[in-house]
Specification:
- Two copies of one chain form a homodimer.
- Chain A has two domains: 169 residues, Rossmann fold (3-Layer(aba) Sandwich), CATH 3.40.50; 197 residues, Up-down Bundle (Dehydroquinate synthase-like, alpha domain), CATH 1.20.1090.
- Chain A is 51% helix and 12% strand.
- The longest helix of chain A is centred in the middle third of the chain and has 24 residues.
- Chain A is globular, with a radius of gyration of 20 Å.
- The N and C termini of chain A lie far apart (40 Å).
- The model of chain A has no long low-confidence stretch (mean pLDDT 95).
- At the A-B interface, β1, β2, α7 and α8 of A face β1, β2, α7 and α8 of B.
- β1 of chain A pairs antiparallel with β2 of chain B.
């Protein structure tokens, strides 16, 4: 094995783990916390709950509510000014990928200066970031575990991937109780995002045995428990999705992703669509595209998805991909691009595919993908 | 799941990863490194190699060679004085469990003061430790990953378990190339130590899905590759043992251990025997002792050990334990206590078993064990 790195935050996992947030902040030396969240989490009562926990520990905070779905460059730059003006010293975010990525973007600018676009790509952040505690409210984005931060460059209408080890937060708090206030749609979209993370990390050209075992664990748990979690809303099954998402995040943070995420970022940046919407449309098409370049690994994915093998490795791989199509269909989510993009906007696909080629995630795809091939995938799933 | 914590260092794994040691030290702010190793590693040339790497990065160091097998309290206290006198700021250890545990003990005293025995047990270290880079030269002890530090209290002739999250080093470097200079005996003893870590962590009362997946991975790899690694000394198989040990360490650091390690520490403290010698003697006896209290999990261990199930869960569990006995026998290592302890010393077993009950590892054993039960286990394997 070539030299490989495996870095994750300290993880505090379990029902009620949110209660540790104050102690975590204190442990990181917090005097004034920069608290990031969004209106949905506020409405669900979790921001107030977190403020009460901080208060109990005698910790001051300033609250930055400037989070939108698909966070924008100007929002994190504004947040960084707010961070500095208020003399904050530790960042806590509670929310989904958008809140946590906003927090990470603020952390980069607050300590490194400049514009967020200066840091696009891999390993371009030099100075250490403020300590971060990230509290995920979904079981999907993995931003609380990962060294990834996705911010939209408004001018270019593209989601930038910023990837660096210093973006791994100090502490990740994963409290499955928070999932109880989530909609069915969000639970499905988050789980499918985690599934895409697990699968793309597994076949990534820089995967390792350390990342692969987490990928397979996540794939198995999501196939097994997502239907039951959606149907029953039982905490036991929701917790399994949290475990799956955490495992998938450990995998993709260290193995990176592939062509599917590259294309998803590019589409998401252009159309401002929710990230979780796109995977049931693209994932299996990209898996078929990759099959010849990752047959053995795809067969292993197939074995886990099907819980058995079917003839040759190639047959198992293909049966696994078919099973995933059926799995997505069982949730009544869009599986064609035309369901989420207007016919009139189809003309932008070429430009979007040209952008996707340059996304950092595309570098670790097992089969190099040109913009023409991306376009062909888009046409296949139109 | 109750609230569970999962903390590991940043891991740099792979052939040649030793070369990153200097950059790691710089990243942690090193001006003067406190370098810890032992005479065996020195003789094999690894200390000089590491010094060359530090030199290349322009890093100064002081070398502390005061490491013995089963490090003693006075040695780490002496090391801490040496650390302070020399104004060191980052600790690097290269070696097996003894070198790395010496480094950890020095780190505790250098920053927290007092005597090392003040910190025996769980969570008794309050102040942060100096940054640490630990480079393991064996595939077994797991000290480079874990929050454990085992130091012998000379006066009481007992190995103290010191367990706290701050003992997780900042960076762990695992370079399988270093295993090439190891003896067959050491490779076997280290792998069996890792196997005991994986099994005891798996059935620990505070295991979690995060630790369990690492335990099973480690058990599978060791059963599959230890014989081939010993027979061929091929780097491919030695690397598998490094992966197994790293995975087992991620498991036991976060799930703790059990009665077998409690007894092994107590025996090791009294007789100053190598830790790896004791597991083929005790492990399966303690597994049989625990069976009724962890049948489902033992069946899962059996399934991995045998690579199949055999009748009922209990039958699979028992067949797995028998298979482990045969596995140890295949390496021509002692499997009876009388092979490593003189008949004249048998009288000390009662005292040793009374000590074992108080070891922190005994707290997480699935079946509470009294000193009389420990003694009965010792008699069974005499």
């Amino acid at each position: 094995m070539d030299v490989t790195k495996f870095a994750i935050p300290e993880i505090i996992f379990g029902r009620g783990s949110l209660n540790y947030a104050g102690q975590c902040a204190l442990r990181l030396g917090a005097r004034k916390v920069f608290l990031v969240s969004d209106s949905g989490i506020e409405k669900a009562g979790w921001v107030q709950r977190l403020m009460d926990i901080l208060k109990k520990e005698g910790i001051e905070w300033v609250y930055y509510p400037g989070v939108s779905s698909n966070p924008r460059d100007f929002q994190v730059e504004q947040g960084a000014r707010f961070y500095r003006e208020n003399g904050a010293d530790v960042i806590i975010a509670i929310g989904g990928g958008s809140s946590m990525d906003t927090a990470k973007g603020v952390a980069i600018i607050a300590s490194n200066g400049g514009r967020i676009r200066d840091y696009e790509g891999a390993n371009r952040v030099n100075r250490p970031l403020p300590p971060m505690v990230l509290i995920t409210t979904t079981a999907g984005s993995g931003s609380d575990i990962s060294q990834f931060c996705i911010i939209t460059d408004v001018e270019r209408a593209v989601k930038m991937s910023i990837i660096t080890r210093t973006l791994v937060p100090n502490i990740s708090i994963v409290d499955p109780l928070i999932l109880e206030t989530k909609s069915e749609t969000l639970i499905i979209q988050s789980a499918v995002d985690a599934l895409a993370h697990a699968i793309e990390a597994y076949i990534s050209t820089i995967s390792s045995e350390f990342t692969c075992m987490h990928s397979l664990k996540a794939i198995d748990l999501i196939l097994r428990y997502l239907p039951r979690a959606v149907e029953t809303r039982s905490m036991d099954f929701l917790e399994k999705l949290s475990i799956a998402s955490t495992a998938a995040s450990m995998a993709f943070s260290n193995a990176s992703l592939g062509a599917e995420h590259a294309l998803a970022h590019s589409l998401g940046g252009h159309f401002d669509m929710r990230h979780g919407v796109i995977h049931p449309i693209l994932l299996t098409a990209v898996m078929r595209f990759n099959l010849d370049h990752a047959e053995t690994k795809m067969a292993e994915i197939g074995r886990v998805v099907l819980d058995r093998t079917v003839g040759s490795p190639r047959e198992t791989a293909l049966a696994g991909i078919d099973r995933l199509d059926a799995f997505f269909a069982s949730f009544d989510v869009p599986q064609r691009l035309r369901q989420v993009i207007d016919e009139g906007d189809r003309q932008y696909l070429e430009q979007i595919c040209r952008m996707a080629v340059n996304d950092a995630c595309n570098l670790t795809n097992p089969r190099p993908a040109s913009w023409q091939e991306f376009l062909q995938i888009c046409e296949e799933v139109w």
